[in-house]
Fold this protein.
Amino acid sequence: PKNVKGGEVKTSHRYAEQGNTVTITVDPDKGYELDELTVTDSKGRELDLTDKGNGKYTFKMPGTRVEVEVSFKLIETEPEAPAFADVPASAYYYDAVKWAAEQGITGGTDENHFSPDASCTRAQIVTFLWRAAGSPVVNYILPFEDVAESSYYAEAVRWAASQGIVSGVSPTRFGPDLPCTRAQAMTFLYGAMGSPAVTGGSGFLDVDGGAYYAGPVAWAVKNHITSGTGNGLFGTENICTRAQIVTFLFGLYEK
């Protein structure tokens, strides 16, 4: 064949006798790869091809003329994760941010910045969890009047509420723009994992055994998702940064 889009094909023989071994060499253009290669005899029967590597294929010449058909296709490549100027390779959160960007869980605050030290809102962490779960769509009435149907996080909050992962700051308000605390973050992650049974306490001085987050914190520590802030404290009311949240998620889904 001539004028094949995406590459060239050559044969070792222009004419060949029955029983000769004929070599076909395929040479894809840059960015292309071989899609299909077939050799058929005059009755339309497909001949056996032997892959010799390096783009070379051989067949035994039959007692009739043959027809070679070839096609090439574009090589599909995974999009590269964005390189953020404020995420150095030495940062503890580098692998987590890279993973989150590659998985489409979160991008940057602009094209070149991730803003790792910016506080993470309740809407953001629920959206991250929703995307990590595959962005499921559920039929559920949003119970929160401060979550507009048009907001980027509406489907995430709808899903999280339907699964019992989140509750609001009141029966009718979710507080999407409020910063997420460490206690809330562990509770959200714990709920996303189905609230598995956990025994024993967390051992932290600022985690009361009767608190709503006691079980989630104990679970997170036992599963090495996070540890305390030092001096026997978990830092339950400390505000989580974007870097910390994706690190928690990375530990949860990639451990």
About this structure: The mean pLDDT is 91. The longest strand covers residues 32-41. The chain is about 25% helix and 15% strand. The helical segments are 94-102, 122-132, 154-162, 182-192, 214-222, 242-254.
